[in-house]
Amino acid sequence: MSLFNQRKPRRFTHHYLYVDERKEHLRQIEQHGGKEMGMPKTDNSTDYHRLQGFFLQSAKHTRRYAQHRQSGALLTQSIVILLFVLVLIVIWNLLLS
Fold this sequence. Notes:
The protein has 97 residues and is mostly helical. The protein has helices spanning 21-36, 46-58, 60-96. The relative contact order is 0.05.
């Protein structure tokens, strides 16, 4: 044990046990993509929804999927409206007879 050369304590380093490296990597990609698109740098959760539209429109397969989803919704809406109109016609005919 030396009087002039005292050992310094080891620095504290905290290593997380459960770290989602994929999530961290995706966050970095989103931030980088936001910078490229000219979006201001913020850490709000609302940025996810704004960025989602940019990334969806940039890839061809996601655009096709979004168009397919919209066309399916339109078909479903038109079938529901058609059924509603048919029910109204049947009720009207029953009331008139």
